[in-house]
Design brief:
alpha/beta; 5-stranded mixed β-sheet; 7 strands; globular
Length: 204
């Protein structure tokens, strides 16, 4: 949430919409909370935070949760002229070419790639170089790095920004691991979410 909020302020976004995924196509099935529980936890995390909203659009749609379908649904559902940005983690971005209709994503929304928590300042140049190599090899060679915009620009496709925001060393895998071992997670998730997990006995 802190990283998303920092991105919202940096890019002057009106709102961050959090969208829980129903069936992530690229993740192996793992023991997880039911869709209703995950939606409830996201709503608890966003409650009272200015500039945040929650959408159940992917949970209400049948089949795998493809990002391009969500983008299309959002645009057709009342935001045809809105400037949409898609926030994505660094590691997930490096798999974008395996996503359904990834080229259509690049045509419809600007991307904000979030730096890894483990990056240190001297790693940033190598991270940008790795992004450039990946983009040219797997997405489109027409992208060029723009240092002033801190992103990759293209004459026809949308911009891919690299955001070096707050680096919080928190992962969903680590949270699930701690919960599975009966360890507290109050410092890793909002108190309301930790209370909900405890009440429901989730991830045990």
């Amino acid at each position: 949430m802190e990283v998303a909020d920092a991105a919202r302020r940096r890019f002057e976004l009106d709102e961050i919409c959090l969208v829980p995924s129903a069936q992530p196509p690229h993740k192996r099935p793992i023991p997880a909370a039911a869709p209703a529980d995950r939606l409830a936890m996201v709503r608890l995390a966003a409650a009272g935070r200015a500039g945040f909203s929650v959408s159940a659009v992917e949970l209400e749609r049948e089949g795998p949760s493809y990002t391009i379908e969500t983008i299309t649904q959002v645009k057709n559902g009342g935001a045809p002229n809105a400037a949409l940005f898609f926030l994505i983690g660094y590691d997930a971005f490096l798999e974008l070419n395996t996503w359904k209709a990834y080229n259509a994503i690049l045509q419809q929304v600007d991307l904000i790639v979030l730096a890894r928590a483990r990056f240190c300042s001297q790693d940033l140049d190598s991270a940008i170089t790795a992004l450039k190599r990946y983009i040219h090899r797997h997405l489109d060679p027409g992208y060029r790095w723009d240092g002033q915009r801190f992103g990759f620009v293209h004459p026809e496709l949308r911009t891919i920004y690299f955001f070096d925001g707050p680096r919080l060393n928190i992962s969903a895998t680590e949270i699930r691991r701690r919960l599975g071992q009966g360890l507290p997670v109050g410092t890793l998730v909002p108190a309301a979410v930790a209370g909900y997990i405890e009440q429901k006995g989730l991830y045990r």
